[in-house]
Design brief:
By secondary structure, the protein is mainly α. The chain is 87% helix and 0% strand. The protein has a single domain, classed as Fumarate reductase/succinate dehydrogenase, transmembrane subunit (3 helical TM bundles of succinate and fumarate reductases, Up-down Bundle). The chain is built from four helices and no strands.
C-alpha cells in the first residue's frame, strides 16, 4: 500500500469512528421528533441560533464529506480502472461540493 493510499485508508476509518456517534444522535433526534409529533417548523425553532447544533452538524458534514469522497474514489478506481491525477482532481472537487452543500444546509437550520 502506497503512502497516500495508507493515509486515505486511515482517514476514512477515522471519519467512520467520528461519524458513528453523530449518526446515533441524529437518528435519536429523528425518533424523538417524530414520536413527539414535532413539525418542521417546531424543529427549526429549536435548532435556529444554536451553536451546539451548528457545531454538531458542521462536524458531521465535514466527516461525511471526507468519508464519502474517499469511499467513492475507491469504488470508481476498482470498478472502472480510472486512477491517477484526473480521478483525484475530480473527487476532490466532488468532496468540496459535498462540503459546501452540507455547510449551506447546516447554516439554513441553525
Amino acid at each position: 500500500m502506497s503512502g497516500i493510499a495508507l493515509r486515505l485508508y486511515v482517514l476514512q476509518r477515522a471519519t467512520a469512528l467520528l461519524m458513528a456517534p453523530f449518526v446515533l444522535v441524529h437518528l435519536g433526534v429523528i425518533v424523538y421528533a417524530t414520536r413527539a409529533g414535532l413539525s418542521a417548523e417546531a424543529i427549526l425553532g429549536r435548532t435556529e441560533g444554536s451553536l451546539l447544533w451548528a457545531l454538531f452538524y458542521g462536524l458531521f458534514v465535514v466527516a461525511a464529506a471526507i468519508h464519502g469522497t474517499i469511499g467513492l474514489r475507491t469504488v470508481i478506481a476498482e470498478t472502472t480502472g480510472w486512477r491517477g491525477r484526473g480521478l483525484d482532481v475530480a473527487l476532490t472537487l466532488f468532496g468540496l461540493l459535498l462540503l459546501v452543500l452540507g455547510m449551506r444546509a447546516v447554516a439554513a437550520v441553525t
